[in-house]
Amino acid sequence: MLRILHIDRSELFRKVMRELVTRCGHSVVGVPTKEDALEAIAQGDIDLVVTALKLDDGGAESLITAMAGTAGQDIPVIVVTSTDSLEQRERLFSLGVVEYMLKNELSEDRFIRYLETLASDDELSRFMRTLRIAVVDDSQVTLKIVSRILSMNGFSSVTLFDHPEKLLQEEQSFDLYICDIVLPGVSGDHLVSLIRRDHQDAIIISMSQFSGERSLSNILGAGADDYIHKPFDSAGLMARIKVNVRSYQLKKRLERLAVTDGLTGLYNHRYSYERLEQEISKAKRYQRDLSVVMIDVDDFKRVNDTHGHRKGDEVLAGIGQVLGENLRKCDIVGRYGGEEFLVIFPETALADARAAADKLRGVLADHDFQGLGVTVSAGVATFDGQESAQILVSRADALLYQAKRQGKNRIEG
After folding, report:
1. pLDDT tens digits, residue range 21-54?
2. Which of 76, 180, 226, 372 would be a feasible disulfide site paired with 98, CB 3.0-4.6 Å?
3. What residue ranges define each of the domains in the chain, with the CATH number in brackets?
4. By the 8 A CB rule, do 85 and 79 touch?
5. Which of 174, 184, 395 is nearest to 294 (CA)?
């Protein structure tokens, strides 16, 4: 969700913009003056400025000038005005305005498209800055240049290696590798093949001052995703990184979609079972405790019949969020199907799993699902050291329905 600052002396137009931005799923702060705008920008968390051309204490040009050199200097600015001229447009675009819209031509579709693009780029930028990056080059000058470019663009987790052996001995893995082709002790394509062997999902960008189809085909054939020719500038390197990170992000998103439930965001039935089988294997190998909890929403059919299926979906999504927020990082939770949820507690004995399940029951019973209260029942079972995932879940499921028969809003196990 974007946070948008709107500056216009017209209270009516601020209201119109507020309704438009809210319909787009974003938040907006509306202020009448440049001074108010600069105060809001100084407080931070503004993703986009939408301003009228003329304000009582200045205008768009003076606002943009005042933003320069502050924390808001990189915030994109859209000017919305009722007047127009080529000279005016050229002057504003030269100041860095990203869009110029006439009030009488302000299209909701156009505005929505722009916000979607901005939100997508903002999400990509945030994702990029979380990446762990390794740069390998025997030239200290190149390492310094690449490091400076990455630092200027907000990357904070960058490790520099002046010899490939240092990278190969490094225990930490990276999301993005930027490697020179000509290196001491090992060829660039061999280094790429070693990285690809051990880090199949990583992004690998090779760089070299040499060009030629053979070197390019060798390095791509070894497993590199892209190639950049030296010398390069900041824009060129960032463009290569951005293109590859976008593909990497899409791949990760598709992988996530394959294992998650679309409504709740929790793991889906198939992947929950896969994780349970993995945990059973660990429990057998290391002779550790393992418990599972089957949770079912009490009287959920009544929720759907009384309030509609949309409200029922909201309740399920809310339950998924509450479960995710009240479990340990090592715990695994998935939507088993319908209104049933499966929680896997690794290295947890029956008594502790039962206590954790009862805590979840209490938190859910106390939670306000937008004016609606719900309760859940649950069954808890502990792995006996031999049984299959199917039998373990069946035991927890039987205990769940025992809890239903005993009056609901309770735990059995």
Report:
1. 887 778 889 999 999 999 888 887 888 899 998 8
2. 76
3. 3-109 (3.40.50.2300), 131-257 (3.40.50.2300), 269-406 (3.30.70.270)
4. no
5. 395
Q: Which of 390, 392, 389, 395 is nearest to 412 (CA)?
A: 395
- Cα dihedral value 159, 129, 328, 370, nearest 10: 180
3-state SS assignment for residue 195: helix
Phi, psi of 213 (to 5 degrees): -65, -35
Cα–Cα distance for residue pair 196/288, rounded to 1 Å: 34
Q: Judging by beta carbons within 10 Å of its beta carbon (0-12, 13-18, 19+), is residue 184 exposed, middle or buried? A: exposed
- pLDDT tier at 85, thresholds 50, 70, 90: confident
Task: Label residue 251 exposed, middle or buried (CB < 10 Å: 0-12, 13-18, 19+).
Answer: exposed
pTM of the model as a whole = 0.53
- Check whether 371 has a pLDDT greater than 80: yes
For residue 206, give the 3-state DSSP assignment: strand
User: Which amino acid does the sequence have at 159?
Assistant: T
Contact 361, 376 (CB under 8 A): yes
The answer to whether 413 and 379 have CB atoms below 8 angstroms apart is yes
Q: Is 2 helix (H, G, I), strand (E, B) or coil?
A: coil
pLDDT digits (tens, 9 = 90+) for 184-209: 988 888 999 999 999 988 999 998 87
Strands (E), 255-289: none
- For residue 276, give the nearest of 344, 224, 210, 219 by alpha carbon: 344
Q: How confident is the model at residue 289 (pLDDT cuts 50, 70, 90)?
A: very high
Q: Please, what sign has the CA dihedral across residues 181, 184, 186, 191?
A: negative
Full DSSP string of 118-168: HHHHHHHHHHHTT--EEEE-S-HHHHHHHHHHHHHTT---EEEESSHHHHH
Nearest to 193 by CA among 180, 183, 204, 185: 204
Share of the chain above pLDDT 90, in %: 45
Nearest alpha-carbon partner for 205 in 170, 246, 237, 250? 237
Q: How many CB atoms lie under 10 A from the CB of residue 62?
A: 12
In angstroms, rounded to a whole number, what is the distance separating the alpha carbons of residues 137 and 143? Answer: 6
Question: Cβ of 93: how many Cβ atoms within 10 Å?
Answer: 13
